[in-house]
């Protein structure tokens, strides 16, 4: 049985990155929740920091490099997405937004998606509802109810961060199981991919 694939997009700018750490923990929670219900899954990391120059060039030239094209393909072909960004001025990072701006309209439609963000203070936590959810609603992704925001102080003991991560991971796993991604049929993929002439297509009418 082919495993379902989760694309884990992290837009952290530092090294090491709390954004990447949060993405990793959400990935692990989702994989564990899927394993608990008997689903076989694998995850692929899509780290945007090394692609920053490629993403910027793509915005002005509309020509994606091989590395950026591969990253975009991992996301649009995934069965689910975990998307995590640092917060600046109550919004997602420019790197995060520019990457998703490079994905064509409709390519994320119906993909189960979990959103998360990091920031220096809890006052930025509204970024989930004011910026991230509207963007992914526009992209027509299936976004889980819980969103995890991790402020600097949340990385300490007893902050509740672990519980929120586990909850969102389970919600994504449940959505993947109950409402798997609906892939639209390719109009050119007829009868297992065999080519049909125009006359044969008319015969099916």
Automatic annotation (TrEMBL):
Q: Which UniProt keywords apply?
A: Flavoprotein, FMN, Oxidoreductase
Source organism, top-level taxon: Bacteria
On whether Glycoprotein is a keyword of this UniProt record, the answer is: no
Name the Pfam families on file.
FMN_red
Q: Does Flavoprotein count among this protein's keywords?
A: yes
The record's Gene3D superfamilies line, in alphabetical order, gives:
3.40.50.360
- Which residues belong to any copy of the NADPH-dependent FMN reductase-like domain? 5-155
Protein name, as recorded: FMN reductase
- Origin species, per record, is Agrococcus terreus
